[in-house]
Records
---
Amino acid sequence: MFKPGLIDQLNSKKTNMTKEPTKKKATGKSTAESNEPVRIDITRKKFRFGDFIAEKVIKGVAFLSITIIVLIFFFVFREAFPIFSHSKEVKPTTTEQATQDVQETYGAVTDKTSKTEEVQETYGDVTDKPIKEETQETYGAVTDSAQVQEQYGVQTNDTSVTTDPSDTYTVSAGSGFDDNQSAIKTLVTKDWIPVSDKPRYGLLALIVGTFKITLISLLFAAPIAILAALYTAVFANKKMKEIIKPTIELLAGFPSVVIGFFALMVLATFLQEIFHYETRLNSFVGGIAMGIAAIPIIFTITEDALTAVPKSFFEASLAIGASKWQTAFFVILPAATPGIFAAILLGIGRVFGETMIALMATGNAAQMDLNPFSSVRTLAATIGAEMAEVVFGDTHYNVLFLIGSLLFIFTFIINAIAEFYVKGKLMKRIQGK
Amino acid sequence: MIKSFKKNIKGIVIEGITLASALLIIAIVIIMLTVIIIGGKDQLSWEFLTSFPTDGMTKGGIFPAIYGTALLVIIMSIAAVPFGTITAIYLTEYAKENSIIAKTIRFAVRTLAVIPSIIYGLFGLGFFIKFVGAHIDGAFYGGELKWGQPNLLWASLTMALLTLPVVIVSVEEALKTVPQELRAASLALGATKWQTIQKVVIPGSLSGIMTGTILAVSRGAGEVAPILFTGAAYYLATLPGLSDQFMVLGYHIYVLTTQSANVDQTLPIQFGTTCVLLMLTFILNMTAVILRYRIRKKKTN
């Protein structure tokens, strides 16, 4: 076998050594009758120019994928950015108005705080610890916007209005200004009411909904996909492998709109008959449907990780007297855990950004609770449903792009973790450090 | 063998569970296929495929949606396949396996593959329509709205970005099956590197490029999220050109099931359209799976 490096060596040798064989080859076909050395030089030069262009083009195009990612970063964030910048531009020109506005908010303070208190009370009634944890987590996820608010609070200090950053935080809930200032503040509330006189862009319900549905779909898809991969990698004979693998590939090729249609028309009715819940379309149905969409990804990556475990592990385990299933569960599965972790991560990424199934099968109501049988609205579905009707350049438009940025950052990070952390660990484990 | 199985009931049960999950996946695929095909088979007819929707989309065919899907997929392939192939050639032929550039490109390709499709839609809107399109309008049409709005071209290019990683991955896989000996032989005969790629490597991996194209087409035909707001339309009375909005099978299904006033009335059309889309992607994927299977066989031989 030749190694790639060998070719490079050959290449350099070829150019360094006598150039005659090359010449003969170059002219051998085209001008076989006349062997004039001068002509040969010309043809060689000509060829090299073509090569030069081709190689430069290839190298240039190769960077396209990197360029696209940079462009996506730039353009999605660019459209989301006005939420944060707009208010700053407006502020200095209309200082008096701004102060008045803020005073008005003060009038509204009592109402708003009482409102939030009410909400908190109902929380206490309905829920136990898990919900609180959940909401805290999502708060953590939105710290970016919270920070921006604090910055803004500092700015209002400059205009000689004594507003504490922490105060503006609570005041903000639901106060209905037309400018973007209030839009930012509503981001960390749970009301998603973008189209009204007092639009509110609370992302919490959407984020909680997205996580809820991701959890449901993973609880459904991950065990099935991993066990099936284990079967394919360890137990299955060749014939079964030849059935399972193409089937998975076909499932991967199912358009998500078809899976969504199936969930909407068949699965929803079917599951309702079994579980007897009220709303026909809910996060459970959506979660199962998204799980179906995520199975191929989890399966494929897990299966790759399992087959990458060296045969010697398998044989050694059998040689000590372990049975096949013991080997599978206590030797091969643990050895491949980083790969399985990556598979689950990418499955999360798939479900998190899934749009069409979410649009069709989840009910699309922005409610914030942890009941698996209530309707939810995911981040991606919100973009998909509302972007077409929105006014360009509007705050709503910018908020939708902000949601897009959040999705993008999230999947980017997930992929980066799966790529670097897991790969390094897997290599270490399998190759024995 | 049989003795050890009899001894170990636990082993059989556990193996049975793993087998059951594998069978469950197969069952899901079969159920989805049969339900949709049975639901849609009565609707399928030559007339359904070749006529326009009538009576406010409650009757008639889906020809404009098929036409739009075909155009979308063709323009997308023209954009995605050459660029994807060239990137794959760079990765296998030029880049050194562990160089930073190659690693970065590979990471970028994988990231592109996992970015949610709706983000591509946002990008298409923000970049192609609001940036490129608007500037073209400003420069050539005096600010008149022509390209700065959702249309077929921008939707196709958005879809091309989405399918780029699909092409890159399958072509790369195929390029790796071309034996190093062939490359070495070509170089030894005096061919330059570019000649080797042109005359030896690419012909040897044509089936891989085909597979990549087919997979990309199948993906592009089925995705809806990226074109939701970059060009797909609810209903059009005429067939689209490059700068028009267009109808697509997937979007047609979405609109009929969720946006139309009378969902029950259009149920047969919904099943029919879904059936057409599913059969289309199914056949494409089947072809790709078979082609890929052959490539892998060639590799092991």
---
Amino acid sequence: MVQSADRPFLRLFVTPSVLVAGGFVASLAAILQYSLRAYIPGELEPGGFSLSNFAELLKPLYARAFLDTVLICAETAFFTLLLAYPLAFALVRTKNPVLKSVLLVTAVTPLFLGEIVRTYSWIIVLGNTGFVNSLLKAVGFINQPIQMMFTTFGVVVALVHVTLPVMVIMLAAAISHIDRDYEKAAASLGAGPLRTFLTVTLPLSLPGIVAGVTTSFAWTFSAFATPQLIGGGQVSTISTLVYQLGFANFNFPFAAALSLAGIVFTVLVIALLRRAAQPLEKMGGHA
Amino acid sequence: MKKYLAAFAAAATLLASVPASAQEKLIVSTWGGSFKDLIAETIAKKFTADTGVEVEYITGGTIDRLNKAKLAKGSPESDITFTTSHVGWLYANDGLFEELDLSKIPNAGHLVEQAKISPYHIGSWAYVYTIGYRPDLLPAGVKIESWADLWKPELKGTLASPDFDPSHIMVVSALLSGGDAATWEKGQEKLLELKPNFKAFYTNDANSQQLISTGETPIQVLLSMNGYYMKSQGVPIEIIIPKEGAVLGVDTMGIMAGTKKADLAYKFLNAALDPEVQAAIAEFKKGSPVVDNARLDPETAGLPGVFTTPEQWKTQAIIIDHKLRAEKTGEWRKWFAENMMAK
């Protein structure tokens, strides 16, 4: 009763989220039941109970796709972090309002473009007759175009662009919460700017780094349009396989099994990541 | 107050006097973009002129619409659905299409045999999946006249085909290996030999267009209509019919089971098979008419992949049995993804 008196709108606000959560649970239950049913060629309705969809997942092709997906996610998170940190740092610390606006627009603009538009743009940039190859050819660095499309490299480049805004926002939030007195104390004790950054600022921003990397990892795990279009069928990830094997050929039971395995795998990887990052987060914790 | 009541009564009388057909709308489910425009500019125009009934569209991808139709089974969102011939069989097998009474479609008397897909769905236009290439970007001296030419080592890393449907190249490989669609396994070994020549697999028509127009994949197994569209945009593409023939595709239409406008739906199907409408469709998309009495202009009729004579249908089209294709697509797709697309 005390709780409802303190928060009179609690029930009102919680109800929609419970309904949404119910919808998610129902969807997951549907995926689970589809994954346990047999695929009947030429029919839309799946057959009876079967574990064969999960047995299929043991093929090396799928293990390789899971591994490739993790590697692509890790590379994307790493390079996004490398690019996003200086951007976020400058965004928070610069006092020039014009520069701040320019940085903000640069960092956040990709969010306003759809994933498809961004991906098609990258096809134009990375193609054999695209911007990068044309430029390198024009300045005489290369005679033959460098193959960037349909490679893991191309997919990672485009995915970094997709995840960059979110990483910048998360890092900027973490950096803005750092008490500048710690840095001043370090400087007054004789530490130079680089040492102050490496021993004070960077450790204190670790919670933001961990949150950003985890989010980027999870986001990339479910990315579809970018690996599908840039990878051109030559780079297989879990989501592209779900599309190729499930939806493109109406094998919904197998697509469901693959999706379910993907969800479980993602949760496991994220849990491991969080566990590994716990000591770092503690190190970065500050009042 | 009396004035208002009188005005209201007059308006109600006026509305009641409008013919019922003018208030009705026929709902057609189709692909978006140029295919919706094609239907609106040709079939729907004729249908509305004949009946006074407007047409509304539900657009989406082949599989999205199939899923929606499945969820709405019994009370369909659309009265008519356009889909591919083999996916049409999935609609039919799931009881989503009504069995057609061809006596209610007088123009169906001229339907070519190849467009009579099932008792539930019939062709609306046809096309081929064939070889399209950029002569300016292929290695010097490479000639493309047969499907077997795709296997030439000079074409290493140049080829693309659709990732959503490998049936064309799989059946071609089976044919070149002495098999056919039913014995597709005979072509597996040969198909694996083609793997080095593949550079990419395109996801949709737009992706196909981009890959060939930028020269990223200078040779493709492509939809003839797509090739002609790119040609009209100035991309120097050569489209050929290989000596073994090109793989026929038929887009089809069916009446949704449970529709309350079956009579209008039949009239729409009849309008679609009108010879003038069929000629207009062929002009618009550079595809084949599915009736034998459509008169095309000589330029369109002369294009490779546009079939206007029984001889062309017989000798230039590789036909994969549509029902078999619906049943085998899953198996083919899986084999292709596991063996051809995987590194």
---
Amino acid sequence: MGASMGHRRPDSRPAALRWALAAALLLLFAAIAWMTLTYRVRGLDWRTLLSPTGNLKDELAAYTVWHVRAPRLLLAASLGAALAVAGCLLQAMTRNPLSDTEIIGLNQGAACAAVVALLLFGGSDSSLVILPAALCGAAVSGILVYWLARFGGSDVSRLVLSGVAISAFMGALTTGIILLFETRLMEIVYWMAGKLSGANWSDNRLIWGIGGPVLTAAFLLSGRLNLLAQGDEVAAGLGVNVARTRGLLGLMVILLAGSAAAVAGPIGFVGLMVPHMARRIVGIDHRRLIPASALLGAALLSAADFAAQWISYPADIPVGIVTAFLGVPFFLYLLRRNKEER
Amino acid sequence: MKKARFASTAVGLLLLLLVIALLSLRFGAVSVSLSDIVKELLGGEAQVLKYRLPRLAIAVLVGINMAVSGAILQGITRNPLAVPDVVGVSAGGGFAAVIVLLLYPGSGSLLPVAAFVGAVAAAVIVYMAAYQRGGVRPLRLALTGVAVSTGFQAMITFLIVKYALSSSQALMWLKGSLYARSWQHVELLWPWTLAGCALALLGSRHLNALQLDEQTVRGIGMKVQAARLVLLATAVGLAASSVAIAGTIGFVGLVVPPLARRLVGSDSKRLLPVAALLGAALVSLADLLGRVAHPPLEIPAGILTALIGAPYFAYVLFVRISR
């Protein structure tokens, strides 16, 4: 078991170094944000950007920055943070280093339910329809995965493979439904691949409204997460109600994954990669790990979205594809490193 | 006793296949009564002959290919999860085929070659990535294959989004549809099926032996590596050719061979034909259901096989392997 949490070394880094690392992360994120906001916007430098909104001389530049770029950047950052923390919670909860909302099938479940809801009650105000549906879908997938994994014993590979089975099932269902209603095909294919284009402030508010409280709760629960990481018996011995904590964590993961999928479609592998990277940087203490994951996730997804926007301009490829490109090799690496398990 | 059982199973399956075949000729977006079909067949120049028969033929051939390929792979690796979809063959073949479809739309003859190359490449990648300390363990192989398949799927989606042309068609194809398949496709596919099945049957003795453990096999005096390589190439060829023609009709190779084993035991000489018949019946049934479910729209056969196959996958995973 110890092996699956990775390299469990003592937190011997001095506090100063840790703060320096945190500052470096923040700087990294700021640099990415700057790039995203200003790349290829004519007549823009830092002075015009940092001045209050109205003072931007060029109308077009102002519009581009404040109504196109900024909401998209913030959405990418918020989603990145939400997904990274979801992955972090999931990995702590299952004590499985390969867990991710995409891998265990939550995203596909959310997507499936959202597509059904879109086609049944789709209208002008579709985000209100998608959100509850996506949450329900994620919950159904989560319960199925939990049930299957318990049925098969808590083995690292089995959780992942049951997620694969559920993903395949839900994916087939989704595609089947889509193909029956072919008129809206392209829109949905695009959404299903995980996209951020056309992000607006109401998407942002949605994700803040759900993600904010959940992230705070995750941070508040981090002490308990540390205990849970020691194993069920140890945690129970130290006074943690293991079943209830796990249920709570599951609910939080479903909320995060479902709302993220509702806003931007399924975006995979952020929750897989970020917690491992963050663990390398700040160690395994969840009180530091969760904020670091949130920050790193925000940086990673914004960078991925930046790449997605410009890598094959003018085609705006879905960001889920970029994260999958990054995540698959990472997954294989984790799999090889994880020698004790199968 | 076993022979009698094999004979009765085979005859039963043949009858089943025949019934499904007749039904799928009869029903569709437009129902044609059987007497009309016979009349058309006698009169020549028939609609049914032109549209539904090649489709049925493709369904049968694809079913045979995927089922036999799955049976061989499962036999060689002694691993119930080692099937074309899981080890990445389908995704790799699909990726190569999508490249050809999107970039060189005119070249139909290039498609099978490309899909074959892609499938082989993906299989090699998966095996190399999963190989560790002198062996490939079932669950690790499955996980690696799934990851590599996800990577290929991402690239496929990328291509579809970037070259948004006819993406509906590409999606149909990816999910394994038999829509608008003609005699031309049948002609491309049947040599593969014939050669693959012949090779598999010729090698069935070796396949039986390979299911024993390594030392025993060497003790019998078999050229283990050579036999394994030939059988592996056969399996990949079968899967790749059907992916090239009909897209990724998933889970057939996973579901069918264990079912066949339950029916006639694990002797490959009997297992392979029964698996082939079952596969053919399954795919043509899936295609038939997809056509009649919601006419005039069609659900690709691959979706129906996935809806059947994914729960079965979970079952194999938990009930069969965990013991």
---
Amino acid sequence: MIPTQFDYKAPATLDEAVALLASDLDGAKVLAGGHSLIPAMKLRLAQPQLLVDIARIKSLSYIREEGDQILIGATTTHYQLESSDLLKQICPLLPECAKSIGDVQVRNKGTIGGSIAHSDPAGDWPAAVLALDADLVLVGPNGERTEKAEDFFVDLLTTNLLPGEILREIRIKKPSGRFGHAYQKVPHPASGFAVVGIAVNLTLNNDGSCKSAGIGVTGVDVKAYRATLVETALAGTSLDDNAIAAAVSHICDGVDPNSDLYASGEYRCHLATVHTRRAIQAAKARVQ
Amino acid sequence: MKLEGTHELDALRERVYQCLVTPEVLQRCIPGCEKLEKTAENTFAATIRAGVGSIKGVFNGTARLEDMREPEHLRIVVDGKGQPGFLKGSGDLDLEQTANGTKISYVGDVQVGGTIASVGQRMIQGAAKMMATQFFTSLGAEAKTAVGEPPPQHGFFRTALRWASGILKRLFSTQKAQKAQK
């Protein structure tokens, strides 16, 4: 329960943080909310030599509108996202997703950037940013680059972040027109992690048919993924029960589902099918 | 925990089999393998630095090849332990010549215990799948080269990263030194 010895640096700016990370690419680790890294360190499953604490960089924590985009700083906490009146109005998927994470203590410390960069197979944020087709802004020693959320998650706990890079900002195109959001989750009773979590971002045409759907799935595969087959199957339909049922049957296509003591792969896929249907129906009912 | 899967390799079955029983090749293919030594006929001692993301651990153990029927079948029995936990188990590999190369089917049963099993249970299978894919991808590249040719550069990306990180380190340390002078 006591981690191995490590150094701790709390830089005041992002540039300093990037330089510190570059000083020890193998041994340094970014610390944000610490709700995945610190437990792993206490169990000595992770033994970084140096922690670079970016949670104290004030300029990394914000939620704001800019043009047709919503910008979210990487160290914005789950609680800040959950309680943001702006987001409740213009992008309700984010507060709804935040509300389902862990408990109050976790939400007060844990950050959206930390969750995305850690890429836990059962983390909630990856599903939400996939459904919203977000862009992730990464900054490293060679400057800044932007990556689509869809390309970012590579494998179990593995992302396209290069050594030395830090996730700086999440950029989401402001939902417009007739849209409805829903996050539907089956939490693990002990940990609160998603056994399955389904994020839906639905846009309707004026006649009520489906214009487009963004669907992010977490908990099912080794990484969160976009259910593109379900999205395409929904587009253009009237979103009646038959159309939804036909579309959600593709939720696990091409996926080798996780299996653990709590839920077999088969059961997970079943849950995913049921909860994708419910999430789509909930999103549809919320369209204004 | 049951492990099961198939991988298609673009190489002849005889060649793939030879790769599977050659310690040097195995050491290059097993993700994070730092040492693999023959200790007796068909028995090897290995040190593997395995991990995903920030979760890492060093495992020491032995691997024994059994039931060898060249070039179609072999069985691997492993037993290892390290700081994060222990694992032991065995797996059967079947090699089948196909039109495009070799199809490897594996079925294994592995027991994992210790810290890694109690807290990482939900991720062990995913981690095993990931390492198996890395292993068979490297093995496929190895088997494609003819005997005597230099080994393929599947470690190229890693080498490139290390090289780049070395340059960065130097760059930043000179910058620091310059700043200090000012």
